[in-house]
Amino acid sequence: MTISKLLFAGCVFCFAALAPVLAAIPGREPPVPVRTVAPDYPSDLRNQGVSGVVMVKCTIDEQGNVAETTVSKSSNETFDKYAMDALKKWKFKPARQDGNPVSMQVTIPIKFVAEES
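Given the sequence above, the corresponding structure tokens read:
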């Protein structure tokens, strides 16, 4: 596994760490990622050794699909489109309220880490 793939996997764990906060509402279960897709890395930024993170606010619908993505914070706007494109390919077990699937808005960090040679 490459360093960039390993660190990308870390963003999934960051999301998982938020689960207790999202589940703080009685009867609510947060969405859980079941398929993730690593973002493409802009070759010019990779060649320059530029790393970054994009915080993407999105809605996970009742079917577990990603809808309505927006960037809430970004270290480099060149990464924004790549982060949102990748996140739109993710699939989630939808959030639940009292056992019923519901849509939920979440913010997910997408990390871009240039590998050191």
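The chain has one domain: 3-112. Try to locate this feature in the token string yourself.
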